[in-house]
Hints:
Layout: H1 2-30, H2 36-43, H3 49-89, H4 103-123
Helix pairs in contact: 1-2, 1-3
Amino acid sequence: xxxxxxxxxxxxxxxxLQMSRAEAILKVILSPTDSVADTYSALCPKGTPTxxxxxxxxxxxxIHDSTRQSNEELISQTQSSIKELFLQSSPGKMDxxxxxxxxxxxxxxxxxxxxxxATHTIFHV
Length: 125
């Protein structure tokens, strides 16, 4: 029973330590950009420059996400403006797409005309 109490207590200490580290990292990430290094050194005295760089990368990744979202909104607005401009400047609405005949149809029509000409010549001579 005493062993279980010791292991439960050590696990509890481990969880508290990890949660305090996570809290410190979140505080550093949420701190103003110009005071990230000072906040990191105050909250993580045993921190390394490599870990600070990873936190800074995380911080700017979240900034870029919000920038990306605003860029996507800007792109969407620009696309809708271009579409409106195009619709306003177009000569009129097309009810249907223009028909494009393939060369096969032209060849068939030419063959039919030759046949008609030949039969007309034979029977009307």
